[in-house]
């Protein structure tokens, strides 16, 4: 599984525990951590954008955020990539991403590798379950389409996500 790791800091004390857990599980990963001091940051962000498009999932350490990290998170969701948001306990922030089946939020203690590992294992299962592999075309009447658009806007999700959510609820 190909995982892109994002962080708004290049501090190894923050990034290393998470990256080591990902690599320990033998997932292919690329560290795209950056900060305001990153050399040639626009090029770094452009390359990160390409990596996000190829990724199966995105792991984000977001105890510290900046505009570019928010932009990359938004891009990840627009690309329908599952995202794991990790925040250190005590440094939690409310990130306005809307309701999405693709976003999983977890807190962790920096020195507790088992906690990070459990969060990652659950996230990998989510990636495998949510990977969209089959295309399905659907024709709707005007009334059904209007209702679907209204409901998806109320929930801040796409029409396809709204239908998938209904099907998943029915499956339970």
TrEMBL record:
Protein name, per record: Nucleoside 2-deoxyribosyltransferase
């Amino acid at each position: 599984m190909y995982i892109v790791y994002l962080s708004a800091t290049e501090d190894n004390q923050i990034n290393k525990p998470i990256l080591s857990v990902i690599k320990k599980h033998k997932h292919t990963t690329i560290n795209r951590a950056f900060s305001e001091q990153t050399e040639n940051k626009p090029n770094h962000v452009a390359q990160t954008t390409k990596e996000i498009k190829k990724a199966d999932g995105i792991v984000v350490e977001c105890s510290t955020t900046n505009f570019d990290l928010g932009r990359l998170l938004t891009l990840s969701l627009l690309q329908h990539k599952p995202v794991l948001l990790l925040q250190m306990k005590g440094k939690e922030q409310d990130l306005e991403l809307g309701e999405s089946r693709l976003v999983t939020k977890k807190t962790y203690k920096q020195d507790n590798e088992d906690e990070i590992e459990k969060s990652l294992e659950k996230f990998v299962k989510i990636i495998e379950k949510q990977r969209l592999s089959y295309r399905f075309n659907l024709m709707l009447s005007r009334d059904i389409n209007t209702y679907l658009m209204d409901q998806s806007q109320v929930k801040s999700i796409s029409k396809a996500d709204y239908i998938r959510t209904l099907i998943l609820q029915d499956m339970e």
